[in-house]
């Protein structure tokens, strides 16, 4: 049975996609069967996992509109060791098309149920908004992983996300919970980041993952090679942190 996680945060540029592709690669490295679902029309996770979004025959768009199954539309990234249900600009149309359709927030959940036995982990990279696409992700998931930078307004931004997750939990998906907050792009030398990190632990306790992802230039360079940092340079500090995070996730799901 696959465990399904959304990587979500309504802010852009906080490290969602970096987390999605590197956690996928880290989990694959430790022997897990992983499907990465790109729900962002920008297709950054697709490209960052070595799959060319411009030449996709089928994508998550076709899956949401029920013209293809996950098994038909997912492609295997051999270099990365996991499967990718890709996205490209076509997906931005789905937003409007879904509005008039039945079960519009349940489409991804239904499609993933068919692929349940093929994977241990399904990771969904969400767009930076609370859209029909993100709702499809949240309705399909057992839990949400929230990457966040330890900056001044970080806690304030979290309130909106936590409320959204509560609403989805109450009205659409009783399974949904926040699995954890992942501190990313972390610089331990910055006093402010340390303070925000301490506040996070105070407010959210063990919902804050033990693993911390440092700011690391190799993680930022890797996408231009079409690879997750974990594959591009496994010895980089950031890559090691993601492998540690993958191990922490494997431990966490044992308790779910
Ligand atoms: P999002 O998907 O939330 O918009 P991204 O994962 O695309 O965010 O990250 C935004 C930018 O920050 C990208 O240029 C990415 O390469 C960079 N980045 C993300 N995480 C790190 C990190 N740990 N160290 C250095 N750069 C990072
Ligand atoms: Mg992104």
Automatic annotation (TrEMBL):
It comes from the Bacteria. Keywords: Coiled coil. Residues 84-118 form a coiled coil. Residues 3-178 form the AAA domain. Gene3D superfamilies: P-loop containing nucleotide triphosphate hydrolases. Pfam families: AAA_31 (PF13614). This is ParA family protein.
